[in-house]
Design brief:
Elements (H helix, E strand, L loop, with lengths): L1 E6 L6 H12 L2 E4 H10 L3 H10 L7 H13 L6 E5 L5 H13 L6 E6 L2 H14 L3 H4 L1 H15 L2 H7 L3 E5 L4 H9 L3
Parallel strand pairs: 1-3, 1-4, 2-3, 4-5
The structure holds adenosine monophosphate.
Length: 187
């Protein structure tokens, strides 16, 4: 089983690239943001809990997302591979993922990181707010918090995966097709 991580700040284009990667490589796309939004839409207890963090631009607790990821992995044993999008976002989540895959004698193959500037993050998110109806995209304060959360909690994972020799970085400000071509070289 192959496991890839699509990494990068909010608005980097992870969702867009994930769609193309899934079409080409037939991986199972696992976006923790999408899974949480589904829980919110279905008004579950988990959804209510998640919403309280998301509307503040904060991360949902590690144990919540790790549990969702575990469920995705064990309930899809026939998948060709997994593409994690928006997960892991903290060192604790990355360590839990390593432990989880270790139990199966599997491991993360590569972390493909799409990098854009903070200015581009803001422009992209505001643009997305006009297309998708995401409350956390429409509010300047939430966007600022998400950028800060990315730098404080998620960016340290770059060192974590560099040390494992799995980290690949791609400039995310070009054309969608060109970025996809770059990504494909690493699969
Ligand atoms: P995304 O769609 O990936 O931008 O995620 C939207 C929001 O969901 C984030 O701002 C977080 O509040 C929450 N979220 C998504 N993935 C995670 C994760 N791996 N860990 C914690 N919170 C997450």
């Amino acid at each position: 089983m192959r496991y890839f991580i699509l990494f990068g700040p909010p608005g980097a284009g992870k969702g867009t690239q994930a769609k193309l990667m899934v079409e080409k490589f037939e991986f199972r796309h696992v976006s923790t943001g999408d899974l949480l939004r589904r829980e919110i839409k279905n008004e579950t207890e988990l959804g209510k809990l998640a919403q309280s963090y998301i509307v503040d631009g904060q991360l949902v607790p590690d144990e919540v997302v790790v549990k969702m990821i575990k469920h995705e992995i064990v309930s899809n044993p026939d998948a060709k591979g997994f593409l994690f999008d928006g997960f892991p976002r903290t060192t604790e989540q990355a360590e839990s993922l390593d432990a989880l895959l270790g139990e199966l004698d599997h491991q993360v193959e590569k972390v493909i990181s799409i990098i854009i500037s903070d200015e581009t993050i803001k422009e992209r998110i505001k643009h997305r707010a006009t297309i998708e109806n995401r409350k956390d995209d429409a509010d300047e304060k939430i966007i600022e918090n998400r950028i800060k959360t990315y730098h404080d909690k998620t960016e340290p994972l770059i060192t974590f995966y560099k040390e494992q020799g799995k980290y690949v970085e791609i400039a995310g400000e070009g054309l969608i097709e060109e970025i996809f071509e770059e990504i494909s070289k690493h699969i």
